[in-house]
Design a protein that fits this description.
By secondary structure, the chain is mainly α. The protein is built from eight helices and no strands. The protein is globular and about 55 Å long.
Length: about 260
Amino acid sequence: MLSAKSLYEEILEDDESFRLFCSIAASGESQGGWENARIAALVPDTERDLAPKITRHGADEDKHGRIFGALMKKRGLDPVPVPPDTDYTMLLERDGIGLAHEKLKGDRSLTVQDIVTYLAHSRVTEQRASEQMALLRRHFADHPDLGRAVRMISDDEDNHLAYCHEELLRFARAGHGRVIQRTLRACALAEIRVYRDVSLAVMAHMGRILGWPAAKSAALTAGIHAVYAYERLAGWHRMVSLEAPARRNALGGPATPGFA
């Protein structure tokens, strides 16, 4: 019987599939680190107090990229190029979600609206990251090789999500509520589509590496489409709600160190 745990175990136990898994994860985290660093550098003067938290967010993402690299190194593996159809971050940017990289590569200060867009995009993608890491933590928190990394990254993703809720609520109180809700909805609907496409691509690549039979691949494909159907119908609403987080000022301090 297929289960999330058995599927991940199969991917993590094989060197080639593990290397692809970590390479995809490391690339996405490193890209997120660069984006946050650029946003922190371009924050408008009226929001300079937010810059240290954005910097911390980026530092955490960079740390996660290094952690995935260290996991590969521990098994004597080198990263592999990330297949374009599995590049979640770049596919979202191509769909116009978040802040365009061309804007982030420039020197012009961002606007308050840009910061709201960044936070809304992060609130949606951090929801996904928090849920994925919670799944891994549930099954692999005590794993001798992966457990420490999973727990550390999961804690960080929960902090990132709390930070997004807190800051978006602050902007909503300042009069940006309608724009925030509109942006959140657009981001969520785009994200679930990209997540479906990336999931299909990742499973196709893993299936070729691991030699999955056609019936198994078909079952996984059907499951991914079923998740998308649910999310398109109602599941996306969890990505657009805002509530005061239990973790207050979650990114108010320096980033915690990773491990080698």
